[in-house]
DNA sequence: TACTTCATCTCGATC
DNA sequence: GATCGAGGTGAAGTA
């Protein structure tokens, strides 16, 4: 990895065009040829960048560019999409290179799939007397997250999202239409369950007779802890 | 901005829990207190990070941690969410600090908002005799990008995308269903306009009687230039 | 390899 | 501040 702190201006041409005026920035050149341009603020997203696979070529500045103070020009081109990033370097304040080696990578815990598992384990959260039929119940157009039965034995299809928006309601609607045409399983009611449900999604769901259910991940995990403590 | 290259292991606790095993990485400490941890590959997303507002505190390692080779511990805590990032530093290979100043920021060109503005200004691209009613026409389920009238005075709802795929057609379909239930504005026809329309989206749109319109951003901008030259 | 879905999404615009 | 939609989305899993 090569780290360069320099005054520079940058132009990007690809899906869109973008320009960075002259300022002091960090240029991070990774081992795979990719380049990130960071300022001293903002979040993790660089001001501009080029993703791998790409290649960097150093170009000699023209006379008028040299007169303008440009000491070097980097042209980074994407191997496939012809996107191009041009960095005009002025004063270079720091330049160092370091061998990092391959990273073992990030280990994650606590994401979406666990929500499904937790709801399946605590299916009573759907309401009194509900029982689990199965997770990932397969239909012709894809798997329903959870299929259950209510106290009267009627089928309940659950669509699960971390954040519930309109797309999820549309998806559940398609499942419900399909399943309600199948006399073996009809009638099927729908539950849209998420940690957070956007107002527009809630309105659409309720217009269509789909029940909305807010999930509390920590509370659900707490139920597990309670069980663990009990046994 | 402080740049540290060091052997380190990292733990994050917040929305999820995550762990990075011992390896050599770049730690980028920005002026606003935020921290990015980058490896020598991947894309622009760091392996782990803490977004501002947050604060870093250096903690003394316990004796057993010192024995294990830990020379310093950074605890970065988010000011609002109580997310926490712990970096255990082993061997430090590089450590430098640089004054970058405030960045003037990125100037973008060619995004959807400009497309909308351009199409509204050149509404005749929808067809002979079309007139603009308004941009961002509000409905109960969200704003229609452009509402126009055709030569006969009938309403035309335009959904605008840079890249047109099925989601956009679904969105426009919802608007059309809603608006066509309103006797004050019905009947409303639909136009799906984009710089690029995926074949599946085109088929779905045409099956539903929605007209597809390919937009040429450069040509539309050219129309502006022509006007500028004329006046 | 292409497609779908998720994300500690980020980021801006708007209410 | 909350919300909504777009992204040069990226990244991971699946068919």
TrEMBL record, chains A, B:
User: Which Pfam families has this protein been placed in?
Assistant: NucS_C, NucS_N
Q: Which residues form the Endonuclease NucS C-terminal domain?
A: 111-230
Residues crossing the lipid bilayer are none
What is its biological role?
Answer: Cleaves both 3' and 5' ssDNA extremities of branched DNA structures.
The record's section on PANTHER family has: ENDONUCLEASE NUCS
Q: Which InterPro entries match?
A: Endonuclease_NucS (IPR002793), NucS_C (IPR048301), NucS_N (IPR048302), NucS_N_sf (IPR049173), tRNA_endonuc-like_dom_sf (IPR011856)
Q: Where is the Endonuclease NucS N-terminal PH-like domain?
A: 2-104
The species is Leifsonia kafniensis
* Main location group: cytoplasm
GO MF, one annotated term: endonuclease activity
Q: Does the keyword field hold DNA-binding?
A: yes
According to UniProt, the name of this protein is Endonuclease NucS
List, alphabetically, the NCBIfam families matched.
PRK03298.1
Q: What class of enzyme is it?
A: hydrolase
Which Enzyme Commission number(s) are listed? 3.1.-.-
Signal peptide boundaries: none
Provide the alphabetized UniProt keywords. Cytoplasm, DNA-binding, Endonuclease, Hydrolase, Nuclease
Q: Kindly list the places in or outside the cell where this protein is found, as annotated in its UniProt entry.
A: Cytoplasm
The text of the family note is:
Belongs to the NucS endonuclease family.
């Amino acid at each position: 990895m090569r780290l360069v702190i320099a005054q520079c201006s940058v132009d990007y041409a690809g899906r869109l065009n973008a320009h960075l005026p002259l300022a002091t920035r960090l240029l991070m050149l990774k081992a795979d040829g990719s380049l990130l341009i960071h300022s001293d603020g903002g979040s993790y997203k660089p001001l501009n960048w080029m993703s791998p696979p790409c290649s960097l070529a150093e170009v000699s500045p023209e006379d008028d560019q040299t007169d303008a103070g440009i000491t070097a020009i980097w042209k980074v081109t994407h191997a496939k999409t012809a996107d191009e990033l041009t960095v005009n370097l002025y004063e270079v304040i720091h330049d160092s290179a370091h061998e990092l080696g391959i990273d073992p990578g990030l280990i994650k815990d606590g994401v979406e799939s666990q929500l499904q598992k937790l709801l399946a384990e605590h299916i009573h959260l759907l309401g009194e007397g509900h029982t689990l039929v199965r997770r990932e119940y397969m239909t012709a157009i894809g798997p329903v997250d959870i299929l259950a039965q209510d106290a009267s034995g009627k089928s309940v299809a659950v669509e699960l999202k971390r954040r519930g928006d309109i797309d999820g309601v549309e998806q559940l609607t398609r499942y419900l239409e399909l399943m309600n045409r199948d006399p073996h399983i009809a009638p099927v009611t729908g539950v849209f369950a998420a940690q957070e449900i956007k107002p527009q999604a809630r309105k659409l769901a309720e217009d269509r007779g789909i029940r909305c259910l807010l999930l509390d991940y920590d509370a659900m995990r707490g139920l597990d802890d309670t069980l663990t403590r009990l046994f």
